[in-house]
Amino acid sequence: MVKGLYTAYTGMINEQHRMDVLTNNLANANTNGYKKEGATSQSFSDQLALKIKDYTDAPFTARGLGIINPGVKIGEGYVDWSEGPMKETNNTFDMAIGGYGFFGIEYTNKAVNIERDVANQTNIMYTRDGNFTLNADGVLVTQDGDYVLSQDGGHIEIDPDLPVEINTLGEIIQDGEVVATVGRFDFEKTTYPDGRITYNNLEHYGENMYIPIDGTNAVESTSALYAGFLEQSNVSVVDEMVNMIAVQRNYDTNQRMITTVDSSLDIAVNQLGRLS
Protein backbone atom coordinates (compact mmCIF):
# COMPACT_ATOMS: atom_id res chain seq x y z
CA MET A 1 0.00 0.00 0.00
CA VAL A 2 2.81 2.40 0.88
CA LYS A 3 4.38 1.51 -2.45
CA GLY A 4 1.24 2.94 -4.04
CA LEU A 5 2.06 6.30 -2.44
CA TYR A 6 5.54 6.22 -3.96
CA THR A 7 4.23 5.21 -7.40
CA ALA A 8 1.70 8.06 -7.41
CA TYR A 9 4.36 10.49 -6.17
CA THR A 10 6.76 9.61 -8.99
CA GLY A 11 3.90 10.01 -11.45
CA MET A 12 3.20 13.53 -10.16
CA ILE A 13 6.88 14.51 -10.43
CA ASN A 14 6.97 13.24 -14.01
CA GLU A 15 3.83 15.16 -15.01
CA GLN A 16 5.21 18.29 -13.38
CA HIS A 17 8.33 17.98 -15.55
CA ARG A 18 6.22 17.50 -18.68
CA MET A 19 4.19 20.59 -17.75
CA ASP A 20 7.40 22.64 -17.43
CA VAL A 21 8.43 21.60 -20.95
CA LEU A 22 5.00 22.40 -22.39
CA THR A 23 4.83 25.84 -20.80
CA ASN A 24 8.30 26.66 -22.12
CA ASN A 25 7.14 25.68 -25.61
CA LEU A 26 4.07 27.89 -25.30
CA ALA A 27 6.18 30.80 -24.03
CA ASN A 28 8.29 30.55 -27.21
CA ALA A 29 5.45 30.00 -29.68
CA ASN A 30 6.29 33.36 -31.29
CA THR A 31 10.09 33.08 -31.04
CA ASN A 32 11.75 33.03 -34.46
CA GLY A 33 13.43 29.72 -35.25
CA TYR A 34 12.48 28.08 -31.95
CA LYS A 35 12.34 24.27 -31.97
CA LYS A 36 9.86 22.73 -29.58
CA GLU A 37 11.07 20.34 -26.92
CA GLY A 38 9.54 17.21 -25.49
CA ALA A 39 10.00 14.87 -22.54
CA THR A 40 9.86 11.10 -22.33
CA SER A 41 8.98 8.85 -19.41
CA GLN A 42 10.62 5.65 -18.26
CA SER A 43 9.49 3.05 -15.77
CA PHE A 44 11.78 1.92 -13.03
CA SER A 45 13.09 -1.60 -13.48
CA ASP A 46 10.63 -4.24 -12.29
CA GLN A 47 11.59 -5.81 -9.00
CA LEU A 48 10.85 -9.30 -7.74
CA ALA A 49 9.13 -9.10 -4.37
CA LEU A 50 10.40 -11.80 -2.00
CA LYS A 51 9.02 -13.23 1.20
CA ILE A 52 11.87 -13.62 3.67
CA LYS A 53 12.27 -14.95 7.21
CA ASP A 54 9.13 -17.04 6.86
CA TYR A 55 9.98 -20.34 8.56
CA THR A 56 6.77 -22.00 7.40
CA ASP A 57 8.71 -22.54 4.18
CA ALA A 58 12.09 -24.16 3.85
CA PRO A 59 14.60 -22.42 6.15
CA PHE A 60 16.62 -19.56 4.67
CA THR A 61 14.71 -19.75 1.40
CA ALA A 62 13.15 -16.63 -0.08
CA ARG A 63 9.82 -17.29 -1.74
CA GLY A 64 8.73 -15.02 -4.60
CA LEU A 65 5.55 -13.01 -4.14
CA GLY A 66 5.39 -11.53 -7.65
CA ILE A 67 6.65 -8.65 -9.72
CA ILE A 68 6.22 -5.04 -8.58
CA ASN A 69 6.99 -1.78 -10.39
CA PRO A 70 7.94 1.14 -8.14
CA GLY A 71 6.71 3.85 -10.50
CA VAL A 72 7.84 6.14 -13.29
CA LYS A 73 10.92 8.32 -13.72
CA ILE A 74 11.75 11.24 -15.97
CA GLY A 75 13.25 10.04 -19.23
CA GLU A 76 15.30 11.86 -21.81
CA GLY A 77 14.38 15.23 -23.28
CA TYR A 78 14.36 15.76 -27.03
CA VAL A 79 14.07 18.52 -29.61
CA ASP A 80 11.73 18.45 -32.61
CA TRP A 81 13.95 19.68 -35.45
CA SER A 82 11.19 19.86 -38.04
CA GLU A 83 11.15 23.08 -40.06
CA GLY A 84 8.80 25.82 -38.91
CA PRO A 85 6.59 27.83 -41.28
CA MET A 86 8.18 30.75 -43.12
CA LYS A 87 6.81 34.26 -42.85
CA GLU A 88 7.43 36.79 -45.60
CA THR A 89 8.67 40.13 -44.26
CA ASN A 90 10.08 41.80 -47.42
CA ASN A 91 13.03 42.92 -45.28
CA THR A 92 16.26 42.20 -47.16
CA PHE A 93 18.17 41.31 -44.01
CA ASP A 94 15.56 38.88 -42.70
CA MET A 95 16.75 35.41 -43.70
CA ALA A 96 15.49 31.85 -43.38
CA ILE A 97 17.17 28.53 -44.12
CA GLY A 98 15.14 26.00 -46.09
CA GLY A 99 16.12 22.59 -44.78
CA TYR A 100 18.77 21.72 -42.21
CA GLY A 101 21.41 24.16 -41.10
CA PHE A 102 22.12 27.13 -38.85
CA PHE A 103 23.40 30.68 -38.98
CA GLY A 104 26.68 31.25 -37.15
CA ILE A 105 26.69 33.99 -34.51
CA GLU A 106 29.64 35.50 -32.65
CA TYR A 107 27.78 35.81 -29.37
CA THR A 108 29.10 38.09 -26.61
CA ASN A 109 27.76 37.48 -23.13
CA LYS A 110 26.09 40.66 -21.97
CA ALA A 111 25.99 39.82 -18.26
CA VAL A 112 27.03 37.19 -15.76
CA ASN A 113 24.61 34.26 -15.69
CA ILE A 114 24.58 30.60 -14.77
CA GLU A 115 25.46 29.41 -18.27
CA ARG A 116 28.36 31.72 -19.08
CA ASP A 117 29.71 33.20 -15.85
CA VAL A 118 32.18 35.63 -17.46
CA ALA A 119 30.74 38.90 -18.74
CA ASN A 120 31.82 39.96 -22.25
CA GLN A 121 33.02 36.45 -23.03
CA THR A 122 32.63 35.62 -26.73
CA ASN A 123 31.42 32.25 -28.02
CA ILE A 124 30.42 30.95 -31.43
CA MET A 125 26.78 29.89 -31.30
CA TYR A 126 24.29 28.77 -33.91
CA THR A 127 20.66 29.69 -34.52
CA ARG A 128 17.79 29.38 -36.97
CA ASP A 129 16.65 32.93 -36.22
CA GLY A 130 17.60 35.07 -39.21
CA ASN A 131 16.21 38.38 -37.96
CA PHE A 132 19.31 40.43 -38.82
CA THR A 133 20.09 44.09 -39.40
CA LEU A 134 22.99 46.41 -40.22
CA ASN A 135 24.71 48.37 -37.47
CA ALA A 136 26.12 51.87 -37.84
CA ASP A 137 29.35 50.49 -39.32
CA GLY A 138 27.55 48.53 -42.04
CA VAL A 139 28.18 45.15 -40.35
CA LEU A 140 25.48 42.47 -40.34
CA VAL A 141 24.38 41.77 -36.76
CA THR A 142 21.54 40.22 -34.79
CA GLN A 143 18.92 42.33 -33.03
CA ASP A 144 21.10 42.07 -29.89
CA GLY A 145 24.14 43.41 -31.74
CA ASP A 146 26.05 40.11 -32.09
CA TYR A 147 27.98 39.59 -35.32
CA VAL A 148 26.61 37.28 -38.01
CA LEU A 149 29.36 35.09 -39.45
CA SER A 150 30.23 34.65 -43.10
CA GLN A 151 30.90 31.22 -44.58
CA ASP A 152 34.61 31.61 -43.79
CA GLY A 153 33.89 32.61 -40.17
CA GLY A 154 34.48 36.36 -40.49
CA HIS A 155 32.23 39.37 -39.99
CA ILE A 156 29.99 40.51 -42.86
CA GLU A 157 30.60 44.16 -43.78
CA ILE A 158 28.78 45.79 -46.67
CA ASP A 159 28.24 49.28 -48.05
CA PRO A 160 24.97 50.57 -46.55
CA ASP A 161 24.62 53.14 -49.36
CA LEU A 162 24.38 50.54 -52.16
CA PRO A 163 21.41 48.31 -53.00
CA VAL A 164 21.71 44.78 -51.64
CA GLU A 165 20.63 41.51 -53.23
CA ILE A 166 20.95 38.15 -51.45
CA ASN A 167 20.50 34.95 -53.49
CA THR A 168 19.64 31.43 -52.32
CA LEU A 169 23.35 30.58 -52.01
CA GLY A 170 23.67 33.22 -49.31
CA GLU A 171 25.77 35.47 -51.55
CA ILE A 172 25.42 39.18 -50.84
CA ILE A 173 25.63 41.08 -54.12
CA GLN A 174 26.31 44.81 -54.44
CA ASP A 175 27.05 46.68 -57.66
CA GLY A 176 27.09 43.36 -59.53
CA GLU A 177 29.77 41.78 -57.31
CA VAL A 178 29.62 39.24 -54.50
CA VAL A 179 30.91 41.08 -51.42
CA ALA A 180 30.25 38.36 -48.81
CA THR A 181 28.48 35.03 -48.24
CA VAL A 182 26.19 34.49 -45.26
CA GLY A 183 27.39 31.44 -43.37
CA ARG A 184 25.18 28.37 -43.30
CA PHE A 185 26.50 25.63 -41.05
CA ASP A 186 25.39 22.14 -40.14
CA PHE A 187 26.41 19.30 -37.82
CA GLU A 188 26.38 15.53 -37.79
CA LYS A 189 22.84 14.21 -37.50
CA THR A 190 21.35 10.97 -36.24
CA THR A 191 18.49 9.63 -38.38
CA TYR A 192 15.86 7.33 -36.87
CA PRO A 193 14.01 4.59 -38.81
CA ASP A 194 10.87 6.76 -39.02
CA GLY A 195 12.83 9.54 -40.72
CA ARG A 196 13.21 11.87 -37.74
CA ILE A 197 16.61 13.43 -37.19
CA THR A 198 18.37 14.74 -34.10
CA TYR A 199 21.55 16.57 -33.25
CA ASN A 200 23.26 14.82 -30.34
CA ASN A 201 26.13 17.29 -30.29
CA LEU A 202 24.25 20.56 -29.77
CA GLU A 203 23.29 22.08 -26.43
CA HIS A 204 20.38 24.50 -26.11
CA TYR A 205 21.22 28.04 -24.97
CA GLY A 206 18.49 30.60 -24.34
CA GLU A 207 15.43 30.66 -26.54
CA ASN A 208 16.89 29.78 -29.94
CA MET A 209 20.68 29.50 -29.70
CA TYR A 210 22.70 26.28 -29.72
CA ILE A 211 26.26 25.51 -28.64
CA PRO A 212 28.31 22.63 -30.09
CA ILE A 213 29.65 20.29 -27.41
CA ASP A 214 32.51 17.78 -27.15
CA GLY A 215 34.67 19.66 -29.65
CA THR A 216 32.14 19.23 -32.46
CA ASN A 217 33.05 21.09 -35.63
CA ALA A 218 30.54 22.67 -37.99
CA VAL A 219 30.45 21.88 -41.69
CA GLU A 220 29.01 23.90 -44.55
CA SER A 221 25.29 23.48 -45.13
CA THR A 222 23.97 23.16 -48.68
CA SER A 223 20.44 24.27 -47.77
CA ALA A 224 18.99 27.25 -49.59
CA LEU A 225 18.79 30.67 -47.98
CA TYR A 226 15.71 32.85 -48.51
CA ALA A 227 16.07 36.60 -47.98
CA GLY A 228 12.96 38.51 -46.95
CA PHE A 229 11.61 35.58 -44.92
CA LEU A 230 11.76 34.48 -41.28
CA GLU A 231 11.30 30.95 -39.97
CA GLN A 232 8.66 30.86 -37.27
CA SER A 233 8.53 28.55 -34.26
CA ASN A 234 7.40 24.98 -35.02
CA VAL A 235 5.24 24.96 -31.88
CA SER A 236 1.54 24.31 -32.45
CA VAL A 237 -0.31 26.21 -29.72
CA VAL A 238 -3.40 24.02 -30.09
CA ASP A 239 -1.41 20.79 -29.74
CA GLU A 240 0.46 22.08 -26.71
CA MET A 241 -2.78 23.16 -25.02
CA VAL A 242 -4.32 19.72 -25.62
CA ASN A 243 -1.22 18.06 -24.18
CA MET A 244 -1.34 20.41 -21.21
CA ILE A 245 -4.91 19.34 -20.43
CA ALA A 246 -3.86 15.67 -20.59
CA VAL A 247 -0.91 16.30 -18.28
CA GLN A 248 -3.13 18.11 -15.78
CA ARG A 249 -5.59 15.23 -15.73
CA ASN A 250 -2.80 12.70 -15.20
CA TYR A 251 -1.47 14.81 -12.34
CA ASP A 252 -4.92 14.98 -10.73
CA THR A 253 -5.31 11.20 -11.07
CA ASN A 254 -2.07 10.58 -9.20
CA GLN A 255 -3.11 13.10 -6.58
CA ARG A 256 -6.41 11.29 -6.00
CA MET A 257 -4.48 8.03 -5.74
CA ILE A 258 -2.44 9.46 -2.88
CA THR A 259 -5.63 10.63 -1.14
CA THR A 260 -7.19 7.17 -1.51
CA VAL A 261 -4.14 5.35 -0.16
CA ASP A 262 -3.90 7.83 2.71
CA SER A 263 -7.51 7.12 3.66
CA SER A 264 -6.87 3.38 3.55
CA LEU A 265 -3.81 3.76 5.77
CA ASP A 266 -5.85 5.82 8.22
CA ILE A 267 -8.42 3.05 8.50
CA ALA A 268 -5.72 0.38 8.88
CA VAL A 269 -3.88 2.29 11.62
CA ASN A 270 -6.69 3.90 13.59
CA GLN A 271 -9.76 1.72 13.13
CA LEU A 272 -8.87 -1.92 12.47
CA GLY A 273 -8.50 -3.87 15.65
CA ARG A 274 -10.22 -1.22 17.78
CA LEU A 275 -12.05 -2.65 20.76
CA SER A 276 -15.64 -1.52 21.12
Automatic annotation (TrEMBL):
Domain Flagellar basal-body/hook protein C-terminal: from-to ranges: 227-270
GO cellular component: bacterial-type flagellum basal body
Keywords assigned: Bacterial flagellum, Cell projection, Cilium, Flagellum
SUPFAM superfamilies, per the entry: Flagellar hook protein flgE
Protein name, UniProt field: Flagellar basal-body rod protein FlgF
Family classification: Belongs to the flagella basal body rod proteins family.
Species classification: Bacteria, Bacillati, Bacillota, Clostridia, Lachnospirales
Flagellar basal body rod protein N-terminal domain segment(s): 5-35
One Pfam match: Flg_bb_rod
Domain Flagellar hook protein FlgE/F/G-like D1 stretches: 97-172
Tree of life domain: Bacteria
